[in-house]
Design goal:
- The longest helix has 6 residues, at 32-37.
- The chain has 1 helix and 27 strands.
- The protein has one helix at residues 32-37; strands at residues 2-4, 9-10, 19-25, 29-31, 44-46, 50-58, 63-68, 74-75, 78-82, 86-88, 91-92, 100-101, 104-108, 113-115, 118-120, 126-131, 135-137, 146-150, 154-159, 163-170, 177-181, 187-194, 202-206, 215-230, 235-240, 245-251, 258-260.
- The protein starts with a strand and ends with a strand.
Length: 261
């Protein structure tokens, strides 16, 4: 495995040279404090003004990484994959400095994904792919939503058997959310589109087959011309809380579904 000292940094925040980081191990990629406290480690941060490709892989353990790109104005692909749990700090920054961002992919084969939000401003669009077995959210049990925010469109996928709690927000720039969810543990999500009325925009959302005892609970806010939603075979509860939708198709499956407009 790879074990770092807590609260340290890979990179240099005043360095304008693009930084690529590759971490690969059979066992855990973690920190001293994470090992000692079994879950409260801070994780090592990765940061530079220009971040290139960031890759962390543990074939037989967990991954704990701190904040990624707190001062970055650009970031390449971010790929984190582990057999066990995947935990990262904030990707981006509270003021969303990164204006160019690659694809963000997180995979936990047998555990959860716990990300402390994603906040960037790539006007050309952001892609986020998440796959886990147990939970996907901002904590280890998905009781708090992972907030994905971009100043541009967002394309996302959610997969695996996980129960997911993920919110999507298109902020300040015109854009929409397109989501393909195939996870079977259910999904709770608020999707906030931010297009301009009459611009021909479309937001398309496809939901997974929620297993017995779980449900897909999705609320739509914001502005989009066309909203298309396809449900799964389980229970889907869809709420459209805005009047700024011109048309669309809501095609729910065979479960005891609810539609609120």
């Amino acid at each position: 495995g790879i074990t770092f000292t807590d609260s340290k940094l890979i990179g240099k925040t005043d360095n304008a040279v693009e930084l690529d980081v590759t971490l690969s191990a059979k066992e855990a990629i973690t920190t001293v404090n994470e090992i000692a406290s079994a879950g409260t480690g801070v994780g090592i941060a990765i940061d530079s003004v220009k971040l290139g490709a960031i890759s962390a892989t543990s074939t037989d353990g967990l991954i704990l990484i701190g904040n990624i790109g707190a001062n970055a104005t650009s970031m390449g692909d971010i790929t984190v994959s582990a057999k066990g749990n995947v935990t990262t700090g904030l990707i981006g920054n509270g003021t969303a400095k990164a204006t160019s961002v690659g694809t963000i992919s997180m995979t936990s084969t047998y555990g959860y994904i716990d990300v402390d939000d994603i906040n960037v401003q790539d006007a050309t669009g952001l892609t986020v792919n998440l796959s886990a077995k147990t939970f996907i959210g901002k904590d280890t049990t998905a009781s708090t939503a992972l907030a994905i925010k971009n100043q541009g469109s967002i394309t996302s996928s959610i997969a695996g058997a996980a129960k997911a709690n993920v919110d999507y927000t298109v902020a300040t720039a015109n854009g929409t959310v397109n989501l393909t969810a195939t996870n079977t543990g259910g999904l709770k999500s608020t999707i906030d589109n931010n297009a301009t009325a009459g611009d021909g925009s479309t937001s398309t959302v496809s939901l997974g087959n929620a297993k017995s005892g779980e449900k897909n609970e999705v609320t739509f806010t914001g502005t989009v011309d066309t909203l298309n939603v396809t449900g799964g075979t389980g229970v889907d509860e869809i709420a459209i809380t805005t009047t700024n939708v011109k048309n669309g198709t809501i095609a729910l499956g065979t479960g005891a579904n609810q539609l609120s407009i």
